[in-house]
Each structure stands twice: as C-alpha cells, then as structure tokens.
Design a protein that fits this description.
The chain is an alpha/beta fold and about 290 residues long. It has nine helices and 14 strands. The protein has two domains: about 90 residues, Alpha-Beta Plaits, CATH 3.30.70; about 160 residues, Rossmann fold.
Length: about 290
C-alpha cells in the first residue's frame, strides 16, 4: 500500500499539539525527530525527551486532501512550510537488509545477519549471528564497537564475564566465542532480556550464558571481567556495586561515556580500580581498569 508522507518543522513547545491535530486530520502515524541532529542523553525518569527544533513526519492515505491539511496547519500554528511526498509501498524488512551487512571488529570478530552467508567470511572469523532488533547493541554504535575491539584485543580465554546492561547480549556472546568460560547478562529492560535470550539461543550458547533481569540479580558470583556499555550517570551510580562483582585483580570495561564525562567516571572508579586507561572513538570513550 502506498502512503502520502507529510513532513514539517515545529518547536518543542507545540510538537505534541501539532501531532494531535495531524492525527485528527486522519494521520495513521506521527514520528518525531530532531531537526538539527542534536543528541539527548540520559533523560529524567518519566520524561519524553524532545529537541528544541522538532521535525514531524506523518503518514496519510494517498488520497488525502493536502490543501485542507495545509490550511488547517497555517490557521492553527502559522506553519507555512509543509512538504508532501508519495511513499511507495516496499517490503520494509528487505529495505533494512540493504543497510545492515556483516561487520568486522578487530582481527577476527564478525557480526553477521541471518540474510548473509557467513561461509564467505575469512576462515579464522569468529562469527556472532545477530540481526538488528528492538534492543540496543548490534555493534554499529561507537560504544559497542569500543567494547568489541577490547575483547578482540584482550581475549577472555577461560574467564567468567558479566555483561551488565546487556542490551542484545552481543558483548557476552562475543566474550564466550572468544574463549570465555561462562557469562552472565544482566539488564533492567524486559525487552533487552528477551532479545538477549533469543540471541544466545541463536548462537547455541545457552549452556554458557545465563540471562537475568536486574530485579532477579542475587548473590552473583564474582567475575574475572565485567563489561558495562551503558551511560555515564548510571555508571557512576553503579561503581560501588560493580566493585563487589569483580574478583581482586579482575578487569572492568566501561563504555557509553562522552569525553566531557570522563572525569566523573575516573573519580568514581579510581577508589576501587587501578591502572585506569582510556580509549576513544569519535566523541565516545572506553575506560578499563583492574580491581584493587
């Protein structure tokens, strides 16, 4: 089915009202995005974050009265610039496949979606079978990339690993495929727990990787390596807790940290971890250390 797509720019203050009017005019969906690609990090609990300048994209039936919609938006909001474009019907799953291909991290580690032939990868490739999904973390973001690079360069052979804030479970899966003895995935998002369990099953690692919601985390055995790819504020809040989850001499890998947030991370973890080191990719940083 083809659709008529409307696009307009508005302000944070009136975005919700504009959306309600568009739905009243027959829109079947409205999407918010940032007009100037401004990043928002760590919104407060219960908040729906919006940028100061918001682009709304709405879908209508092809035969919608475009002039009537334009007149209504001009009268109510004084919005003059409204763009309509025909959105042809496509198999959207196939469209996604065009943008997601096998990716290499370090020397041997690869992430391969189900629609690509992993037999075409190098003979020594360590392959994670994973499709993009609802939970964060398929390797494409700098923060995940930094963690995967660490695992490829520091093989966790024979180690026990905790992947805290596991998302899709990609880091635990990578760790086990690179030689870790066992791994535990912990996340506070039920969708992430479901995604992780599915990915662990798809990679035939259910005997080596356990998956828990953070509410069920009790008496966790101390690990040789803890990886946490989350955000700076939660990392600071969890510093004491993480110190209890790692053996003396064990290692920690922290990611999801912007360069300007480094100081507070180093201050929070310096009490419990020695030899803190920083690696950076674009604006994002990874911090590693050894439990004192």
């Amino acid at each position: 089915m083809d659709w008529m797509q409307l696009t307009l720019n508005t302000s944070k203050q009136q975005a919700d009202f504009v959306s309600e009017v568009l739905m009243g005019l027959g829109s079947v969906s409205v999407t918010f995005s940032d007009t100037f690609d401004e990043a928002i990090f760590e919104p407060k609990v219960g908040e729906t974050p919006l940028w100061e300048n918001v682009t709304l994209t709405a879908l209508f039936d092809v035969g919608v009265d475009q002039d009537s919609i334009k007149d209504t938006l001009q009268q109510i909001f004084n919005i003059d610039e409204v763009r309509f474009a025909l959105l042809k019907d496509r198999v959207w799953e196939d469209e996604c496949k065009k943008d997601f291909h096998a990716m290499q991290f370090g020397k041997r580690l690869w992430i391969c979606p189900s629609w690509e032939d992993s037999s075409q990868l190098p003979d020594d490739a360590v392959v994670i079978d994973m499709d993009p999904g609802l939970a964060f973390g398929t390797g494409t973001h700098q923060t995940t990339d930094l963690c995967l690079q660490y695992l490829d360069e520091n093989l966790p052979v024979g180690q026990s690993v905790i992947d805290y804030g596991s998302g899709t479970g990609i880091l635990a899966i990578a760790a086990v495929k690179l030689g870790a003895r066992q791994a535990l995935c912990v996340d506070n998002d039920p969708q992430a727990v479901i995604a992780t369990r599915s990915n662990v099953e798809n990679n035939q690692l259910t005997s080596q990787i356990a998956v828990l919601h953070s509410d069920d985390e009790k008496n966790t055995t101390k690990a040789d390596l803890l990886i946490a790819n989350i955000l700076a504020k939660p990392l600071v809040d969890l510093s004491v807790h993480f110190s209890t989850l790692i053996k003396t001499g064990g290692k920690i890998v922290l990611s999801g940290i912007l360069h300007e947030q480094l100081e507070m991370i180093l201050n929070a973890y310096g009490e419990y971890f020695a030899d803190l080191k920083v690696a950076q990719k674009d604006d994002w940083c990874r911090v590693t250390g050894i439990r004192k």
